[in-house]
Amino acid sequence: MKQLNRAFLAIFAVAFALMYLASYLNASEGYSGDNTLTVYNWGDYIDPDLLDKFEEETGITVIYQTFDSNEAMLTKIAQGGTTFDVAVPSDYAINKMMEEKLLLPLDKAKLPNFRNIDTKYLDLPFDPGNVYSVPYFWGTVGIVYNPEMVEGLTFESWEDLWDPSLKNNIFLLDGAREVMGMGLNSLGYSLNDTDEDHLQEAKRKLNELTPNVKAILGDEIKLLLANEEAAVGLVWSGDASEIMDENDKLDYVIPQEGSNIWSDNMVIPKTARNLEGAHQFINFMLDPENAATNTEYVGYSTPNKEALRFLPEDIAGDERFYPGDEVLEKLEVYENLGKRKLAHLNELFLEFKMHRKR
Q: pLDDT > 90: what percent of the chain?
């Protein structure tokens, strides 16, 4: 009998330990409840002081986790084993998440600050009516360059990149949509064009650019451009802003043929457990003063029109990062091309990179 009791106690102890371990793992992997909120965002993409402020105002503890690509974020949420209450995917990824039924609709009645968003950033093709998403930050793809290192080039046209004087003097983002989109735009085509003849034409033109391309880079592009390791870079506007903070000789331009306008958006994944807290957090981030604070910290453009009143004029009035309607009309959102077409685009980009190494 004593042996049976000891066995029972041992089993109970193991079961208790496993329950404790599961509870710990859930907390570290995104467990949420009434007093806990798990936010899944890009790295260094929020002012940490705002997380502290939200916790103080609401009594809700924020567990902040990060991802480094939309694909990684999609995979984690689709697996369903981890709870996230708020996530911040990019535009085309939201469309994918809608197709795969990974999102919960927003309760706009719980988001009174939604009215602060400029209507030009609402009702976009990836989420008509903003049923599932609220704009967080937006930006463009363009060219950052050092006027002192180029011979009178202004990069008002993509064609300037092909100038022979730029031999071995251009850095490109390591992104298929960005580079192939640049090639398509330079030919007058949409960056969402999937016509095979147009894609092949764009790839041939990019191949002609290879003598000018010094490297195709990830995050290190910012440091290298700031240190004048190359005169020109194809970059996202937020990175351009950061680069220019480090080196005020540099400038940023969106070529006249058009380019990409992107946005990252707050959504509530279907696995969310703290729906009330999720809406509180989103509404908190839409507060004009909070949005302005976050904008100064992150460096990207805010879609919050009321937040502009709380930003310094050298930020809110900078037309390179807040361009007028004439420029905005020429910009396109990346469409969800589907797995097959996106895979083909990635193949063409890989072929371009291999051609550059020959």
A: 83
